[in-house]
Hints:
By secondary structure, this protein is mainly beta. It has one domain (17-94). The protein is 8% helix and 30% strand. The protein contains 1 helix and 8 strands, in the order E-E-E-E-E-E-E-E-H. It has a 3-stranded antiparallel sheet with strand order 2-1-6, with no helix packed on it. It starts with 16 loop residues before the first strand and ends in a 17-residue tail after the last helix.
Amino acid sequence: MPEAVDPERLHDRATPAVVDVEGQGAVFVADVLFKDSGWIRITEWNGRYAYLPPHRVRQIKQIEVERPDDDLSQAFRVAEPEWRERAAEWTEDPEDPDDAERTVMA
């Protein structure tokens, strides 16, 4: 089972974002990575990931991250408390049927 992404302790290169996926709508993800092939790898908050072809992605809006109190020894976190709360809700068990609608299929 993949490890959930903690919105309070992101890795240094994490790029949380809202991805507008054609046919699915907006999806809040923990990380977006652009591959050389043009495909986009998204990591969901529950730790699962998927690849999206570029023609299915309408828009990507990056969510701001910060270090608490600008302390360089602290991990990055999602800057807005509302987004952190939403992300924390999405770190639930990926096998939970209530989470099924959030899964992105390429």
